[in-house]
Amino acid sequence: MAFPNLRDIAPIDEVGVKERASRYQKRSLKGETKLSALRLALTMLDVTTLEGKDSVGKVKQMCRKALSPMASDPTIGPAAAVCVYPSLVKIAKNEVAGSKVKVASVATAFPSGQSRLRERLGEIKYAVSEGADEIDMVISRGKFLAGDYRGLYDEVAKCKEACGEAHLKVILETGELETLDNVRIASEISMSAGADFIKTSTGKIAPAATLPVTLVMLQAIADYHERTGIMVGMKPAGGISDAKLALQYLVMVKELLGKKWLSNKWFRFGASSLTNDLLMQLEKQRTGLYQGGDYFSKD
Amino acid sequence: MNRLEVKKTYKLYIGGKFPRSESGRVQTLTDKKGEVIANVAKASKKDLRNTVVATRKAQLGWAASSAYLKGQILYRLAEMLEGRKAQFISSLIRSGKTQKRATAEVEKSIDTLVYFAGWSDKFQAVYSSVNPVSSPHYNFSAPVATGVVGIVLDDSSTLLDLISQMAPIIVGGNTALIIVPGSLAIAAMELAEVIHTSDVPAGVINILTGELGDMVPTLAGHMDVNSISVSTDDTELKKTVRLLGAENVKRVVFVDQKKSALGPYPILDFQEIKTTWHPVG
What we know:
- The structure holds 2 protein chains of 2 kinds.
- By secondary structure, chain A is α/β, with parallel strands linked by helices.
- Chain A has a single domain (6-25, 49-240), classed as TIM Barrel (Alpha-Beta Barrel), CATH 3.20.20.70.
- Chain A has 11 helices and 8 strands.
- Chain A has helices spanning 14-23, 31-43, 56-67, 89-96, 117-130, 141-145, 149-163, 180-192, 211-228, 243-257, 274-287; strands spanning 45-48, 81-84, 102-106, 134-138, 167-171, 197-199, 233-235, 269-271.
- In chain A, helix 4 links the parallel strand 2 (81-84) and strand 3 (102-106).
- The relative contact order of chain A is 0.15.
- Chain B has one domain (26-279): Aldehyde Dehydrogenase, Chain A, domain 1 (3-Layer(aba) Sandwich), CATH 3.40.605.
- In chain B, 44% of the residues lie in helices and 20% in strands.
- The radius of gyration of chain B is 20 Å and the shape is globular.
- The N and C termini of chain B lie far apart (83 Å).
- In chain B, 44% of the residues are buried.
- The A-B interface holds A 288-295 and B 49, 52, 56, 218, 221-225, 244, 247-248.
């Protein structure tokens, strides 16, 4: 798509968005609906480890957990993908081979993005050549905040090209974009430049994903879909650590984008500690007893 | 002109905060003549669940703090209670006790805190041992905190009972979730104010008031609670606690309040013994 006409983007009513988002926190799912939503959420996880101390063992362990989150019940899961640094893609790929679980890799000098474009593109190509199915790129927030919107568009388009067959998720790092208007503009530009997914955060900056920010991005996706007929996925990441909050996100997606988006093809959670909370809630529904962390594997 | 009386709202004490019950429920307390004394919060299952989370969160940090610090904090609790002695005595009188008995109970409560404060850096030595083994190893056993402990009190419990059960649990590095019935709610929530001003880290001691039947089964079945101390004559309640507690092999301790005497043994009730083998040389 061509560069979007930024004058067509209506300004965001920040108070209104926050109020609207807060309503999702005042309702809750119960019984059967809760059970199916918990199961659905587990299949939407991008199980993530993005730390300097990540090792082969840790990644293998995480892949095992993504493949079968609860050993006692094989009908639960598997997760949508595992998300790792480029150097660990090959290990993850071998581990999940033959399953539906995808391998996502962050690239483009994650998390800051402060490197030459040539290196960043090189990193994407490297991750793809190692077997990554999905690339999570970060945008140059400095460039964006300085008003270089065209620069951002070109950058995302070039990354998309470098991805080839791999899906591109564009991380806006909303915690650094200052205003919801900026979030909306960055979403529009990323989608026009070819993003398959837009993603809130790296998880390295606070605040990470929040309901209001996600609401603005979902609205942008809805409008883009209406204009062009193209579906774009959404991935809130960082800060979603309990099941209750995850279900609120799902309700929001359902209401803003409709049922079509309620699959891991179009919606993902980027999280590391959410898995266990979802499992604990499922177990609570099954046994009627509140669960404790001691009875679930950490990685 | 008459001054409007400022009445206290008795709420809950969870994670170092004084929230109302999420359910919004209250329970009205009356004296023997049927006059209303106060409304106190009536906690729900959901309050209980949130409290377990707060209690768990505080546990590792509290267990890791030095014995010296734990002792200091318990002593600080005693200091604060001493400063508010008159308030506690008058509140016990209001609930039907004589001046003499009320004074004795508050003083004994303060002394109990000081007593267990003293044990903070001594019980490990008393309960540890070096064990003889027939291989070239040092083998030693030492107590470590059980973890999250629920304390359940009933209508016959007093302020002194609450403190006598809480102090040994806390001094051993456990964190406590205390469930008190309405009859003890006012004294317990006044104690919460004392706890709150005594450098006790948030979440180490939590107090819920309400109906035992609402909360005890949930507490007993909760997989993230490691142990329960129960004072009750209700055999049905005891049975429920035993049955549900078996699910994650909780350590269940039934306390006979009539027989309580000061001693370090209650500390051991809420300790696990960890044994270590270490090669010689």
